[in-house]
Structure formats: structure tokens, C-alpha cells
From TrEMBL:
A matching Pfam family: PHP
GO cellular component: cytoplasm
SUPFAM superfamilies: PHP domain-like (SSF89550)
Metal-binding recorded as keyword: no
Family: Belongs to the PHP hydrolase family. HisK subfamily.
Species name: Haloglomus irregulare
E.C. number(s) listed in UniProt: 3.1.3.15
GO biological process per UniProt: L-histidine biosynthetic process
Entry's Gene Ontology molecular function annotations: histidinol-phosphatase activity
Protein's name according to its UniProt entry: histidinol-phosphatase
Catalyzed reactions: L-histidinol phosphate + H2O = L-histidinol + phosphate
Amino acid sequence: MVGAAAETGLDGIGITDHCNVSAGADHDRRKKVMGFNLDQTFERRREGIEAVRERFDVDVHDAVEMDYEPDDEAAVADFLETADFDYAIGSVHYLDGVNVHFGSYFAEKSRAERRELVDRYFEKLVALVESELFEIAAHPDLFERTPELRGLATDDHYHAVAEAFRSSRTVPELNAGRALDTYGEFHPAPRFIEVLLDHDVRFTIGTDSHDPGEIEPRIEAMEELCERHGIEPELF
């Protein structure tokens, strides 16, 4: 990944493995299945990052993407204080205890129930921003990738989140994770970006790359997006 960043001409790259510190048997099982166990391995990974820094002329940032649930704020704060990452990303991935990508679960619910879940998603996102635990909020409308939840967000949702960002140190991420394939849009969605800009909210950018070959085309797409909207992204 760092080699690909160097070949793309980047000055730096953040390594942000997922992490979850929620308690309980279901969470423990999910963490093992998904590999969200950086709370157990961050020191070993840090040694690897130090070794890679010596090989490439690229700033390699030791960072993390944390699953956020309001009930976990104390545990998240304790872990982030202990680990002392270069920066931390917070993300909302779950509704009803189910990952928002699992469309089959949400397909069984009525439209009204799905609207209520999207309400809950944005309530969690506002709580994430107001917690001041994170430098960055990842893919602020992640649920839009799921057809069963897509299109249920409203301007009221967007304005509530924009107000929270405007008063917080946390910056939303322009995320290219599915912009070049199945979903076909960046996060946030176009209307959400417009509202955030209307509220003078700053952005950072994230390619959400899970493979070295994804970095260059996603960087090019992010540059085009920022130019189109006149965005000067924040860097961490």
C-alpha cells in the first residue's frame, strides 16, 4: 500500500485498520470474523509501520478507524488515549446491531421502519461528531450503498449533521470507497455535500482503499471531485 502511494506521488498515507471495542459475546464474535481487533494488535502493527517508514519517502501515519456506538464512548476514549494514534476516524456501521451493508435484513422491514433506522443512523452520526473523540468522521452516509436504505435521507438529516460538524473539531470525510464501482457515488452523496458546504463545513479526503491498485484511480477521482466543488481538503 505504501509503495503504491509512493508511485502515485502522494506525500503521505494513513494506515487505518478497523477497530471495535464494544463489549459482549456478539461483538467479540463479530470482531473475530471481521478482523476488527486492532485494540489487541496495534503495538505489533506500529512496529511494522516503523519498518515501512524506513523504506519509502512517504509519510506513513499510524491511525485507526473505530466503530462508534454512543454506549461505547468511555471505552473508545480509554483505548484512544492508550494507543495514541496519529489520528482517529470514527464510523457508524451498525443499525439494530446489523451492519448497514446487509440489505437482506433491511429488506424485510417496512418503509416506515427503514426510515426510522435512517433517523437512528443520523442520530448516531451527530453523537459521534459531538463526542469530540475523532479527528474524522468516515463515509457519513454509508447506508446509501445499500439499496434497501438508499434515498431515505432528508435535508433535515443533512442540516442537523452539518450543524454538528460546524461546531466540532471533527471533519467529515469525502470517501471514494464505492464511487468507481457498484454504488457509483462518493460519500457524502451530492446533496449532502451541498448542505455541508452551505454550512461552511471543512472536509478531508479518504480513498478507502483496501488494495494497492485502488489508490491511484481513487486519488484522481477525489481530485476531480474537490475541483468541481471548490474544496480545499484538510490534511492530517
